[in-house]
Specification:
Elements: H1 2-14, H2 41-45, H3 52-69, H4 78-93, H5 101-107, H6 114-120, H7 124-147, E1 159-161, H8 173-203, H9 208-218, H10 230-254, H11 257-269, E2 277-279, H12 281-292, E3 294-297, E4 300-305, E5 308-314, H13 319-323, E6 331-336, E7 343-344, H14 350-357, E8 364-370, E9 376-382, E10 384-387, E11 394-400, E12 407-411, H15 426-438, E13 444-448, H16 457-464, E14 471-478, E15 483-488, E16 499-503, H17 510-520, E17 525-528, E18 537-543, H18 548-553, E19 559-568, E20 584-585, H19 624-637, H20 639-656, E21 659-661, H21 664-680, E22 690-693, H22 699-705, H23 710-715, H24 717-729, H25 732-748
Parallel strand pairs: 12-13, 13-16, 16-17, 17-20
Antiparallel strand pairs: 1-21, 2-19, 3-10, 4-5, 5-6, 6-7, 6-8, 8-9, 11-12, 11-22, 14-15, 14-19, 18-19
GO molecular function, one term: endopeptidase activity
Family: Belongs to the peptidase S41A family.
Domain PDZ: 288-358
Length: 757
């Protein structure tokens, strides 16, 4: 904490900015090609007037922070600007769907000037890009209106390239129109196939439909079902896609200058590495929620259903859940505070709407809602701290028929820590879960870090210490080249028995620190796909509101998440870029995705530092090579893993085939083959021999029961338990981890292993 505070203090002292108090010069004028169709100038130029003082201050703060503290020593100059210019276009128009080649050429005069624009605060590139982009959105929306006046010609033998890397910007307006005609056509075709599938299911109900209907009735979602003809299905798809894109273009036009400034600054930041990022105030708030697993608000998940804000989930234990009046499918029309007028939410972006709904614990928010039955109601809810249950560690006791052992299973979705409330952290929760399952006499433990993208570095260190006596956990190399060591100084061990840690390609950062440390100590057997993600860097979050100049200007300025360190294993190698290689590799269902650190632009390279001296865990009595051989045999003979391998090969091929047909008969034929293959490769088989007991909501979420309606909470328990059990029974990787742990336990006891079937 001391280092963090010092870092913030130094940041505020190194800045010495000259604020130009003069009126900003007239915005750079761009020559645009006049359209024959009339357009709304007000709509295109709205919200683009720059705040030169503020943008200059943010630009200079970011430059000083990046050049001074980032691990990769880069100067923000002409060379960096050229690279950042390309990133700026990717952030605004990644799919190359809006800008023309001539637009890109027109803006190319700024290609080597982004560094100068950043420091001056006069972002002419942003000014011109907003105007051109909005002009193109208006143009494309007019294309939409024209194209959807009649049905598509489905007999044409044409295709659409989906990969923007294999496509260039449109040469002219005619080419842009034709590109969007194909986009609209493909979307309509997909919608048609989806609606047709729904109709086929209505005409030929499956067994599972009865369960779905029961859930619909329970949720009061039952709608009158109508059987449609093929012509009616095509019409419904046609109208639905037109409406969808109308809403999409409307949202694009609502992006204000702040949204574009965020892209401008992040285009520059991204050249340093993929994890360095400028966080404007609203993104900073979301980041804090993500890392802490909690927020202050009403506890409802919202989405946009044009033009309304719709409630899609009520968070168990939250304020809305306890108040009981707000329900799933409610449309929020307006929001008010304890005093003052209501703010109309109709037509507002969901990320803007939540800013009005969130608020300090203990304050009142008033919501005007439209119920599913059409009635309207005003609801008052007292805001509270909302704990996001899916973020927290939870456990179960697993027993696989025929093995004769109990295994404690702990799922850790992220390394969460609330820096404002130190009692909320994942280390404390995992310790509590370990103590809880130990009372059930478990023979071993599986710690599941799959899909855990990381979080607080402190918890990676502390959680490692739950399984070893003491010693170094990770080495950290600072931007100045100095190497520090984070040690576990607590000699107590919460759990000392057989241990497996599960990882996959989405296990990153803090997950990799823990997995690497326990692997290097020989404390755990790591089981998973070929490699973990490979994010071996540490970020600091610098609050840009600190410092006299910022405070003088007033208003929120956001934060900078900047990479300041790389971490290294106690054996010297970095987990950056390469990730952690498991002791025992099993097929990964997500192997087909290009989602690892090495797939990201400007990722920092792998390197190493000097290894440390540490005491290996000496209580293991199992032979790793024997475990590998036995696991390999089981995997090769497993029908579930064979299906996973075949699925990966199939999906890899589909990912690489980026050109899609727009001929209806061809697409229907391809869709039929894809459905047959998907059905064949569906990974939904459950191992009913797996008994899941002692499932409860996480220790952390149990605290929420005390705040509200325990009866209501328990009423929902069966559904949560059934979903959890089904998820575990479908998990082929977990099943193999249980077999590996069984072998470990028998070896530990000196017992003879049975032959692998």
């Amino acid at each position: 904490m001391k280092r963090r505070l010092n870092f913030l203090l130094i940041l505020s002292l190194v800045l010495s900015l000259q604020i130009n108090a003069k009126e900003p010069k007239k915005l750079a004028q761009t020559s645009f090609k006049k359209k024959e169709e009339a357009r709304s100038v007000d709509l295109i130029t709205a919200d683009i007037v720059p705040n030169v003082k503020k943008e200059k201050i943010i630009g200079n703060i970011l430059r000083n922070a990046l050049e001074t503290y980032h691990y990769r020593k880069l100067k923000i100059n002409n060379d960096l600007s050229v690279k950042a210019y390309d990133q700026f276009f990717k952030k605004i128009d990644y799919g190359k769907q809006f800008f023309l080649k001539s637009d890109v050429k027109l803006l190319s005069k700024y290609k080597g000037e982004m560094h100068n624009e950043m420091l001056s605060g006069k972002h002419s590139l942003v000014n011109d890009a907003i105007k051109i982009f909005r002009e193109r959105v208006v143009e494309v929306d007019k294309v939409r209106q024209e194209i959807f006046k009649k049905e598509f010609d489905w007999s044409l033998d044409e295709s659409l390239e989906l990969d923007p890397e294999k496509r260039d910007f449109s040469k002219n307006h005619k080419e842009l129109k034709n590109h969007w005609r194909k986009v609209f056509k493909q979307a309509t075709l997909n919608r048609y196939l989806s609606l047709k599938e729904e109709q086929d299911e209505l005409k030929n109900p499956k067994k599972d439909d009865k369960k779905k209907d029961k859930k619909k009735k329970k949720a009061k979602k039952e709608e009158k079902v109508e059987i449609l003809t093929d012509a009616q299905i095509r019409k419904k798809a046609h109208e639905g896609i037109s409406k969808k894109y109308k809403s999409f273009f409307s949202r694009l036009m609502k992006d204000d200058r702040n949204d574009y400034e965020e892209k401008f600054f992040n285009a520059i930041a991204s050249i340093y590495d993929p994890h360095t990022q400028y966080l404007p105030p609203k993104r900073k708030e979301d980041f804090d929620i993500d890392i802490s697993g909690s927020l202050e608000g009403i506890g409802a998940v919202l989405s946009e259903e044009d033009p309304y804000i719709k409630v899609v989930k009520i968070v168990p234990g939250g304020a809305a859940w306890r108040q009981k009046e707000l329900e799933v499918d409610d449309l929020i029309l307006a929001v008010g505070q304890e005093t003052g007028d209501f703010v109309d939410l109709v037509g507002m972006r969901v990320d803007d709407a939540v800013r009005y709904i969130r608020g300090k614990k203990g304050t009142i928010v008033k919501l005007k809602v439209k119920k599913a039955d059409g009635s309207r109601k005003q609801i008052e809810i007292e805001r509270d701290v909302v704990q996001i249950g899916e973020s927290f560690a939870k456990s179960s006791v697993l027993e696989l028929k025929g093995l004769g052992l109990k295994v404690g299973y702990i799922h850790v979705p992220k390394f969460y820590r609330d820096f404002e409330n130190s009692s909320i952290n994942c280390t404390a929760d995992v310790r509590a879960e370990l103590e809880r399952i130990k009372t059930k006499g478990v023979d071993g433990v599986i710690l599941d870090l799959r899909n855990n993208g990381g979080g607080a570095l402190e918890d990676a260190k502390q959680m490692s210490g739950l399984f070893i006596e003491k010693g170094p956990i990770v080495q950290i190399k600072n931007h100045d080249g100095k190497v520090d060591v984070l040690n576990d100084t607590d000699s107590s061990v919460t759990y000392a028995g057989p241990l497996i840690v599960m990882t996959n390609r989405f296990s990153a950062s803090a997950s990799e620190i823990l997995a690497a440390a326990l692997q290097d100590y020989g404390r755990a057997v790591i089981v998973g796909g070929a490699h973990s993600h490979g994010k071996g860097t540490v970020q600091a979050v610098l609050n840009l509101n600190h410092g006299p100049i910022q405070q003088l200007l007033g208003g929120e300025m956001g934060a900078l998440k900047v990479t300041i360190q790389k971490f290294y294993r106690v054996t010297g190698g970095s987990t950056q870029f390469k990730g952690v290689t498991p002791d025992i590799t099993i097929p990964d269902p997500y192997e087909y995705t290009k989602s690892r650190e090495q797939d990201l632009e400007y990722a920092l390279p792998w390197d190493r530092v000097q290894p440390l001296t540490f005491k290996h865990w000496d209580k293991n009595k199992y032979d790793l090579s024997t475990l590998k051989k036995r696991s390999s045999k089981r995997v090769k003979s497993s029908k579930r893993f064979s299906k996973i391998q075949e699925s990966v090969e199939y999906l890899t091929k589909r990912r690489e085939d980026t050109k899609v047909s727009l001929n209806m008969q061809k697409v229907i034929k391809e869709d039929k083959l894809n459905k047959e293959m998907s059905e064949k490769l569906k990974l939904d088989e459950q191992n009913k021999d797996l008994m899941v007991s002692f499932y409860e909501d996480s220790v952390r979420m149990h605290e929420e029961i005390k705040k509200g309606d325990e009866k209501k909470w328990k009423k929902d328990f069966k559904d949560r338990n059934d979903d959890w059990t089904k998820q575990l029974r479908q998990d082929a990787g977990l099943e193999e981890a249980l077999f590996i742990l069984n072998d470990m336990i028998h070896m530990q006891k000196g017992e003879k292993l049975t032959a692998v079937k």
